[in-house]
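Fig. S4 source data, part A: sequence.
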Amino acid sequence: MNVVSAAQIKALDKAAVEAGIPAGDLMENAGRGVAEAVMRRSHGKNSVVIAGKGGNGGDALVAARVLSERGYRVRAFTLSAIDALIPTTREKAKLLNERFPGRLSVLDDDLDELNQALVTADYAIDGLLGIGVDRPLSGKYLEAVRAINAADLFRVAVDLPSGLSSDSGGIIGEAINADLTVCMAAYKPAHLLYPSRSYCGEVVFVQVGYTDDLWKSVTPIACVVEKSWIDDHLPARRPDGHKGTFGRALVVAGSLGMSGAAILTAAGALRAGAGLVTIACPRSIQAIIATALPEAITIGLPEREGHLTQDSLAPLRDHLVRADILALGPGLGRAGDTGAFVRALIAEVKLPLVIDADGLFALDHETLTLTAGHAILTPHPGEMSRLIERPAGEIDAERIEIARAFAREHNAVLLLKGSPTAIGTPKGDVFLNPTGNSGLATGGSGDVLTGIIAGLLAGGAPMRDAAILGAYMHGYTADYLARDHSERSIIPSDLLEALPHAIKELEDA
């Protein structure tokens, strides 16, 4: 499913009209879609519709007419005089007045009529503003939003809750807190990025009438990954394959007190299908790891007080030449000499890399340059903040553009964790992962993800695909568990146990 910007939707509207599709037909399709979404709910039949003067208001007025035709008791309001509405919206307002006289009113400054209608309403349909908002609401618009939010009813937003900015996840003032958003044609960033996502409620789609040829003229700003993409890109398993066929993953991870990170990463790689997984770790924790995960080979490296140092690199070299991919970072710790080890290792290695956690912490600009063309980086917002020297609070609302810019600049695949996880590619494409839940917000979950990606990469998936598949599988497994378990109780070992069942579902879908 494509994600488009406000400017792209406006360009599509213009191109549709130029191609001979009347603007009124697009509006009619949109408004009917809103009405049908309301009618699929069972919250009652009293509706308040509030319309602005633009196209969003016209969609809402069509919905008011269609609901009236289906027997709903509708009160519709505009904040502007009928003559002040844009032409197509004005036509819809006049049609509503002709068919159902007395149902449409122009609100006075005090909004008393709206407040009275809201008391008995089951629904409020918000068609105040569209996707072009770029400043906080004020005046009657702000008062109307506050009145709708204060009412005890089901709130339906047309395309986007009024007050949100379409092209980011940021909140620029007060906004409608919708229970349902009826999205026109395609996602906009605000439907997917937090904190604005929390204002949208359930999101459903209406196809307004753009033709395939019109869509071909649009390059989406991102793509939401669908199951069909997973089906098309999940590497096949050769029936005559052996452990070498499915790849040798080397995991460099762990330190004293953090052996679990290495175990979870390696187990994730095994569960994702790697043929052979080797864990290189400080010698003091080798026995712990070997006992916990007998399926993996372990290498105990020279250490200092439980963490790896530059002296750990020489005995690792023989194993690097036999590896197909390298996963680096989980649980290594942040000691200065460990960082030096990480940087020296990256300087020598040309293998495909998955770099996470303390591996990311060790990166400097020079080392990051050395990863160009052969690395998947998997930061959470805090780690991303350090990499790009921007406040962590800015990351979520701008994650699409941040992922795109970083991946392009550094010729890397960037998997920016969060809700949603954004995967940026060197070509400038961005994929948003729709799976996952709050059960993943626990220590060790990211180590499992690193392992899954490493396993897919070892098995032959290209770097872009390994990152996208890994994020989707990881989140899908959490969703699988949440069918029968509380999200608050999911732990990383649950993910590992459930992963074979979740992958089987994906393969059989």
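Fig. S4 source data, part B ends here. The two ends are 18 Å apart (CA to CA).
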